[in-house]
Amino acid sequence: MVGNDIVDIEEAIQASNWQRPRFLNKLFTVQEQLCVHNSTNQFLMVWRLWSMKEAAYKLFTQLHPSRFYKPKQFECKIDNLKGIVIFQDFKCYVDTKITSKYIISEARLVEPKMTSDILKFQNENTDGKSKVLKTELLKSVAKRYQTQSEILKVVKNKFGVPTVRFGLKEINVSLTHHGNYGAYAIF
Amino acid sequence: MTNHELIAKLKAIVAPYVQDEVAFSSLSEDTDFVKDLKINSANLVDIILDIEDEFDIRLENEDMEEMLDVKSAMEIVNTKLEA
User: Fold this and answer.
1) pLDDT, position A101
2) In angstroms, rounded to a whole number, what is the distance separating the alpha carbons of residues A148 and A139?
3) Residue A112's pLDDT is what?
4) A171 - beta bridge partners?
5) CATH class held by domain A3-114
6) What are the tens digits of pLDDT across the range B45-64?
7) Which domains does chain B have, with CATH numbers?
8) What is the pTM of this model?
């Protein structure tokens, strides 16, 4: 199983304001807020922690099909670029990569190396971005399984958790997009 | 406040974050913020903070857990306003 999450840095600047009152306290534990306050780049730390929580949530909901919004309860611990996220008795490892354009996190039950493939969208609308991302995902799955992408299908369960259906096989994947960037990971 | 008035207020709150205008134009109690309106999960917290500001209420962590659709948002606001 794998969960990933991408944050488009330009989009995070434009569409969110992490400095608005009560924002940090809604999403982050006291420890995480301290981590933000002590950071030399608070903006990057906020969105890095957010992407870790989201990636971990996506992994959790693959293992335990469900849907909820409890970001504060996914507690992040960071040691350099390696991270751990704990939610109740669930624990996962999260690898994060930060560039000047985006932040991407990938969560797995064993220590991960970043495998997510990143896409930059052109001028598609939200629906178009989603289609482009799925098409690229299917191409990649087809290559790995040495088959044709036409016989593969992205299926989402009632909780919105995606898998790729290949005959009777279901392959665990994770999809993410934010602003002009998207990414997919295949388990 | 009637349900009709409450939906109108919620509609105004979510408007800046909506990425599916067709679903937004037919917003109802059954509309899901993420699945239907394609609101990015990073903006759910903004909706919660906007709701707090608009209705002068405060939502606890457990109130936020179900805040993924219009119906849940209405229930939480109504509960808070009655309290």
Assistant:
1) 98
2) 8
3) 77
4) A164
5) alpha beta
6) 999 999 999 999 999 999 99
7) 3-82 (1.10.1200.10)
8) 0.95
